[in-house]
Specification:
mainly alpha; two-stranded antiparallel sheet; 3 helices; rod-shaped
Length: 119
Amino acid sequence: MSDYKLKTPKGFEKVGEAYQKIEDAVVGTYQKIEDGVVGTYQKIEDKFVDTFLDREDSAENTTEENQSDSKAKNAFEKIEDAVVGTYEKIEDTVVGAYQKIEDKFVDTFLEKEELKSEE
């Protein structure tokens, strides 16, 4: 967000310091909301991963016991794929909804800051 600034309403260009305080407050508040949403989402994601997923081992186990459990393993993988697929759909929905809110906020209150070239 550092490359954005609050849109300046017509006639407010000379208000300067007061306007800067308002801009800082609005952008700061938005940043806190964004951080809170992202942090909360991260906690949910971490809890989901801890509850439903295990890290895959890089080495394949080829013991007879593992081979005899292939039907159970296949069934489990189908369930796992369904759970992960559902989670990904929920994640996409949440991220998409948040992106719409962020885009609306940016369109309404912020404008790209012009980069000042150093001479």
